[in-house]
Amino acid sequence: MRPEEVIPILEKGVKAGCTEALFTFGEYADEVPEYREWLKELGYSSTLEYLLFLCEKAIDIGILPHTNAGIMARPELEALKPLNASMGLMLEGMAALNAHKDCPGKVPERRLDTIREAGRLKIPYTTGLLVGIGEKREDRIESLQAISGLHREYGHIQEVIIQNFAPKPGTPMENFPEPTIEVMLDTLSLARQILPPDVAVQAAPNLIDPCILITGGVTDLGGISPLTIDWINPEAGWPDIKDLQEKLGNIRLRERLPIYPQYVSKGWYSDKIGKLIKQLSDREGYRKSPGKGIRRKKNEP
Known about the structure:
Structural class: alpha/beta
Oligomer: single chain
CATH architecture: Alpha-Beta Barrel
CATH topology: TIM Barrel
């Protein structure tokens, strides 16, 4: 996406009451000659340089960046940290699987290294598991234990997403079966048992009934956009906030920022985004009421 495509979305997002701009893309794009030429035409020498520009634009417009950009070295994390409320990288799993064949960016040890460096830099961080891609139950346990260990050492994992695999037409795994509800509920239960209590367990309400998710141990329903589709699962539409609250009944949705309240309280953010965080957050570190008629983007039971 070119700047003239991105900036209007950011501006509309602020008007709609959104607080987070998620920047995410495929791995190793800079290695593709056509992409490098495209970047050069835009006036940038690398994806990082372009991404830094977009993050600064988002902050100027009034929305907090969250970058999920694959494996990163410490210098890249250091460059992005001041301009991001939080960052993320899905671990997906510790097992060596056919699903990750020929994907050097999916090597678990390399992903753990990125998550570890984020901890050393005190970056509020999101990670998670992709369930149903050929791993076994013991692999999920090992993955959750690895995440838990990093959090106990650095205290930076704010949420762990338990993501169910959804096959896509035209991909090598298009005929691969989705994980059952029983498998998902078991994984959610394992997550709640293994992860420290201050780490939220998140799952997407556009993929599984949110009532089932919350019963299974989910404490966060992630981001819901009033403007854009779910680019990871474009076939699954976002639920309407009002309809979602009605479906949940007495379970009250509470909106947060892309940086969790405990990290707002700790001051795990830079001066470059501090003013915006203070404008958007209440005394507890949650989202300040956006006002009548404005739709919400982030929700937390």
